[in-house]
């Protein structure tokens, strides 16, 4: 990678951090009656729709296929956060029991917005 891809990769990593922060904020909102997982998922969709160019940047381009260290770390941090949401939802009975690595992907695929 170089130049433009490095820049796009860094911006995509910053966008992922913003997305995760919004999800965390929504999930931590104790005034809402819904579950933290549900609130975090809604925040994900809201951010994707409010910032479509950010979303495209995070999940498109050659730099995503072969990510830089900064983007890979951001993606790993995001995935760890989502895994924690799934595990907590399993603990409180919101999601079925089982390996969170197997339960999480179907949940993710249901609420991940599709863009053409």
Automatic annotation (TrEMBL):
InterPro entries: Tet_transcr_reg_TetR-rel_C_sf. SUPFAM superfamilies: Tetracyclin repressor-like, C-terminal domain. It comes from the Bacteria. This is Uncharacterized protein. It comes from Prescottella soli. The lineage of its organism: Bacteria, Bacillati, Actinomycetota, Actinomycetes, Mycobacteriales.
């Amino acid at each position: 990678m170089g130049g433009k891809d490095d820049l796009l990769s860094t911006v995509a990593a910053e966008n992922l951090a913003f997305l995760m922060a919004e999800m965390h904020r929504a999930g931590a909102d104790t005034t809402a009656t819904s579950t933290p997982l549900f609130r975090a998922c809604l925040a994900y969709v809201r951010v994707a729709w409010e910032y479509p160019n950010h979303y495209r940047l995070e999940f498109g381009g050659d730099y995503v296929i072969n990510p830089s260290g900064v983007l890979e770390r951001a993606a790993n941090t995001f995935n760890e956060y989502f895994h924690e949401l799934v595990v907590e939802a399993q603990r409180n009975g919101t999601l079925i029991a089982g390996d969170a690595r197997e339960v999480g992907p179907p949940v993710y695929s249901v609420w991940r917005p599709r863009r053409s």
